[in-house]
Amino acid sequence: MFKPLIFYIGLRYTRAKKRTQFISFITLTSILGIALGVTALITVLSVMNGFQDELRQRILGMTAHATITGRNGQLQDWSLLKQKLKNTPHIQGMAPFVRGQVMLNFDRRVSGSVLRGILPDQEPQVSDVGNKMKLGNLSSLTAGSFNIVLGKELANYLGVMPGDKVTVISPQVNSTPAGIIPRLRRFTVSGVFEVGMYEYDRNMALVHMQDAAKLFRLRENVSGLRLKLDDLFNAPVISKQLANQLYPEYRVSDWTRAHSNFFRAIQTEKRVMFIILLLIVAVAAFNIVSTLVMVVTDKRGDIAILKTQGLSNPAVMGIFIVLGCVIGIIGTLLGTAGGVLLALNVETIVPAIEQLFGVHFMSAEVYYISEVPSKLDWNDVYQIAGVAFLLTLIATLYPAWQASRINPAEVLRYE
């Protein structure tokens, strides 16, 4: 079916004659359509990969890869557990923490918040919050100082600056002769951090672990032990192994459980975008059908002569399949090259367009990401190129089959 003669004739039909300029124009539009669709697919998926990676990094800047807690929500003898896990494979860092819900009050403003007690010297092992400080630093959180570090949005809402004192109100209560009153403590604002995620910048406050333990009456206990792993994507597997090892005294969870719905939504959106943009490629690919039908009509006499000289029906099909595949391969290669170049230079091209037209696509105040990120995944490139070529191959089958059904006697009767 695919002998050298078949390839020669198929390639020969790609060249235009003066009377087939319109067919060549249709062929060119098919090639450009496929190239445009493939370019758009690669670029959009690369940008979505970039956003997903950027958000993952920002989330994991405050969230540990894995967390170990006790069965009752508290962890005793955390230092012994840490020593026990010191030489465990895949664990790169560990740090204890205390966590609880509180109310923060300053002047006439009140806001709910998550209060996290940390050890400033161990926190860098599991999070990047120390590198996200806008004012002050984590070293200001010392035991007994009752200093507090707030997220930027939380500090802006309360209207506080370093040096101001905020009242932290715990949900636990004290029984007094005057009745039941909530536990509260005055903390001094010693710093402000910004990780770029509203969830944390608006609802997170950090204090020293001992100060948090006193506020929540945990004595020497902590809420849990946070872990940093060598491979964050392997966190579910490693967490399961640790859970089996530490069962039944401890419970282990990983970051994918805490944010599973969020990243599942991103993956779903990515699949939907792939399908939608693939329709562009499909439309361009099926333009090949009209191109080949016109070529078949134009070459009816040639096909009849070839068949009278012994060319079989499968060989005739092969000629037009070669012709369609050449169109698909050229379009796919052009689109792949364009998509890869565009995806690798999005972070340069977008600012140039913004500067040229005086617009700003992404406001940092709204999206927390001022630049359009891009991360090229070669698996996506291979998948897109393969699907595009497959669509063009499918589009060639019907015209090629119609060409193979031409009856030489009927055609040559009128030649």
Total helical segments: 15
Strand content: 15-25%
Largest sheet: 6 strands, mixed, barrel
Overall strand count: 10
Indicate how many domains the architecture comprises: 2
Rounded to an integer in angstroms, the radius of gyration calculated over CA atoms is 33 Å
Can you write the helix and strand succession as a string? HHEHEEEEHEEHEHEHEHHHHHHHH
Shape: elongated
Q: Overall mean pLDDT score?
A: 82
Q: Could you give the order of strands across the largest sheet?
A: 2-3-8-5-7-6
Helix content: 40-55%
Secondary structural class: alpha+beta
Distance between the termini: 27 Å
Give the topology, please.
Elements: H1 4-12, H2 21-60, E1 66-70, H3 78-84, E2 91-106, E3 109-118, E4 133-135, E5 147-151, H4 152-158, E6 165-176, E7 179-193, H5 198-203, E8 204-208, H6 209-216, E9 224-229, H7 235-246, E10 250-254, H8 255-258, H9 260-298, H10 300-308, H11 313-344, H12 346-357, H13 364-367, H14 378-404, H15 408-413
Parallel strand pairs: 3-8, 5-7
Antiparallel strand pairs: 1-9, 1-10, 2-3, 2-6, 2-9, 4-7, 5-8, 6-7
Textual characterization of the structure:
The chain has 415 residues and is α+β, with helices and mostly antiparallel strands. It has 15 helices and ten strands. The protein folds into two domains: 4-57 and 262-413, no CATH class; 66-258, no CATH class. The chain has helices at residues 4-12, 21-60, 78-84, 152-158, 198-203, 209-216, 235-246, 255-258, 260-298, 300-308, 313-344, 346-357, 364-367, 378-404, 408-413, and strands at residues 66-70, 91-106, 109-118, 133-135, 147-151, 165-176, 179-193, 204-208, 224-229, 250-254. Strands 2-3-8-5-7-6 form a six-stranded mixed barrel.
